[in-house]
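Worked example 2:
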Amino acid sequence: MNTNCSISSIPGVAALRGISLEVPDLEAAAPFFAALGVTATGDGTQCSVHTVAQADCMTLRPVSGRRRRLRRITFTAPPSEIGTIHTRAIEAGHMVIAATPASLLMSGPNGIESEVVARDVPHVKAYDCQALIFPHAPCHSEIDTPRPQSLCHAAIFVSAMPEALDFYCRVLGLRVSDRCGGDLVFLHSRHGGDHHILALVKSSGPGLHHYSFEMGTIDAIGLRAAHLARQGYEAGWGMGRHALGSNFFHYVRDPWDCHVELTAGLDQIAADSDRAPGDHKAQDAFYLWGPPPPLDFIANSEALPAGQPLVTA
């Protein structure tokens, strides 16, 4: 199925705005997100996460006796395009839970809600390779540990790749950047920007594989990862560089067995790009260089039977 229709004829979402999770231990959120360098506020019934550039980029709510569960993904879209997305959702037979001129809430594949809120198209980053590192290494006393700038993408598990692509591409207007057969697909906005704002991973059921924060530089990734390790959050994978997307990464495991990626240097795709998506070998799905990933890196803990532990390296 060709999901890349004419760029100009397909209105669609522009960026990832946030994700909503249900987690079994909400009290673990405050110390983890403090170590991550983002602000977490809450009242015991929910926790909202904010970066310097984004308010409410994550929402966590408690759930008793269960593993975490991905509940909702929120995207932004130009105000003039929400109506078109609404029409496409109805035509495709997806349940529209709520709709206003400025927002749209739908039930997507596997029951994961997709929300679209009106925002102007974000400025597309223009990476300078020289800017990905500090030009001169500062002394420890001269620098504050860099904080995440924004939530930039998420990777989710889906049980049926064709149906998921139909929704995220045909309804939400995303386009395929690269793929590894039917097991892994990267999606970008037709408005231009990051190589992917959403990645789809084939699994036995739905779930969240990882959420990713833009750090700006390789040094920022390393400094924040070192700070997390000093705070007791050592489990993860990195540092390394992905082949697809070209970004540098370091992953840390959050308190709910999900991966958090610190990243910088993602390939940028222009709004008027006619690049054809590549179909790559499985060896390109993980990394170009770096340490071997943990044995459970692609495990979908949300699909595991209750009480079954993850395999650890």
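The chain is about 15% helix and 35% strand. Confidence is low (pLDDT under 50) at residues 1-8, 306-313.
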